[in-house]
Please model this.
Amino acid sequence: MVGLYETDLTIGEGIFALLGPNGAGKSTLMSMLTTLLEPTRGTARIGGHDVRRDKQQVRALLGYLPQDFGLYPSLSVIETLDYIGLLYNLTDASGRTARIEEAMSRVNLTEVRDRPIAHLSGGMRQRVGLAQALLNEPKLLIVDEPTAGLDPEERIRVRSMLTELGRDRVVILSTHLIEDVAAIADTVAVLHQGRIRFHGRPDEMRATARGRVWEISARGDELAAIRHEYVETALQRDGDRITVRIVADNAETRDARPVEPSMDDAYISLMREGASGA
Amino acid sequence: MAPSCRRDAGATTPGSAGRTSVAALTRFEARIGFSGAGPRLAAAFAAVLGWSVGNAVGSGAGLSALAVGDAACTYLAFVAVFRLAMVASRDTALGTTSVVWSKPQPTERLVLARFAGAYIQMLFLLAAMFVGAALSRLVHSGTASGMEAYAFQFVRAALVLGFASAASYSLALLADTPLAGALVGLYWVVSMAGQEFLAKVYYPYYTQNLAAFTALGVFFVGLAARYHRGARRGASAAALWCRLVPPIGLAAALWLSWVSVRDGHDPLMRESPLMAEMSRQDASMERVAPGFLLPDQHGRQVSLSDTPGRIFVVALLDPHTDEGALLLGRLRGIHRAYGRFGVLPVAVCISNDMGAAATLARGEGVGFPVLTDWGSHHAPKAADASPVAGAYRVTDMPYVAVTDRRRRIRDMVEGISTYDGPRLMQAVLQRLAEESR
Model:
């Protein structure tokens, strides 16, 4: 079974979002970039270093927030970061302490610095994960599904942190949430079934669906027929009628009106094309 | 697949000039291990266990030290096997793999530091156990004599735990499952239950095997450092030490084991001609006592013919028993009272563990030779347990033969009479009455 097919991709400055459904191969790509997984073929270069050969150099360059990660539950936040600092070869104690303080301050953890990891909320743990990824002041920050499972407030907070971090480094954001991409990504690649379906700016992604997104105002009993005929991307109830948003090459026969595509429309359109082998 | 990141950057940033030392990583690993209430509770249990086994008979701490050493090699070894297997599987259990192993720390350093940190924990438990035993001895006997025997047994137990820890940790790491560590626990159980069919060389907790098993432990850790997540190194070579340690450790373990077999005596493996010669002697009243050449508590070879003209009190005892310790105490009293009249006790320890005699002698503070019968082995009958015991036709331990000044056996005492009641003292006094000089 192939997790990720040959993918030719160059990632530049700012926040690069890797978007795709669960199982698309995003985490596989992340694991390869972070040297945790060995690709069977091909390679990737980070800062000029080959991820297959120069693993130590690559690790020194990057910070990584995994999708599912554990921490030592009995250690406090500051002890955890101290340990990670040692793993990053931050040998000078005062320098390490300064980095830890800075990282905690960046992700708003200073107040819970002495709290054991076991006593942190999911959002706080995610922030510890982000802080540990920042300790070596990475030129490349890889974050895998950083907002998954967080409440809306915490999600906004994490996005805001990533936006700030993306100003002076490359951030690779893997996500299945389109709103993450819409909110903070400079460039985006859509991954589906192990293959890249799109690579470009978010507005370019939206443009891929231009002219193919329609809204249809329909009665409730017409909904099943519409769904059968078109790809639905959104639905909104409006009194006794329903406004259905669809993607289709031509929908004029159904009294549909063309609308500007959203990221959701573009994404679903790309997924549809990917699934049909387009 | 060929993604690349355009922005180039060096890895060195302020505060990251060098590489974290293994010692620094080890300190943190130990901290991780000591965090939480579990380790403190385990230390308390170890201290209580030490307290309960440390209250042993004897005028000194010899038997107490032996008892706590043996208990540590048995019980704490199982704890070490379990604990180290868990430590090896920690990343999988806690989900910390991606956080820890994505960092620029060489694999062998992480493997070594994690082992060292967990082993320090085991030493902490061991120390708690010995402190418990020493306190128990102090409180119950009111004397601190022979405390140095604890140091000897502590080193022994530390090395045994080192092997158990190394083997369990490395197997669990290499197989990526804590169950692999259970193999070591299984070996421990088999070795304890299988004294009738396993040669002495297979026992990690016998003092004479410590060097070989320590080398084997070093081999295991080296193997894990070399091969665990080997692909993680990419094109970089493993550190020199972890390429050299496995072959050197294994070679040393095999060589030391071979030397132990070559120079030892074990009916299950190889019989020593010297010991076979000793066992062919035959002790009987009025005849010259069987001779022997055995190492004493200081490592010197001692024979009865070294000190002619003495009244010998030759005692054969099991150093791990209350009877052995009590007899040694009684011999010490005889030596103090009548040593100046030419009475010389010579204790021969019948034990598979070649370090037991020295521990008992140091703990009891004796000034006469306490010898190790290195031909001892497990046997259902006392006379079959060692060449010297066979030569003296021992039927019940402890056993004492009292000789005249021409080394002829004039009295034999066995069992409880050796250390309880006037029987032994009467035999010595009678010898002195008949042969004052």
In short: Chain B has 15 helices and eight strands.
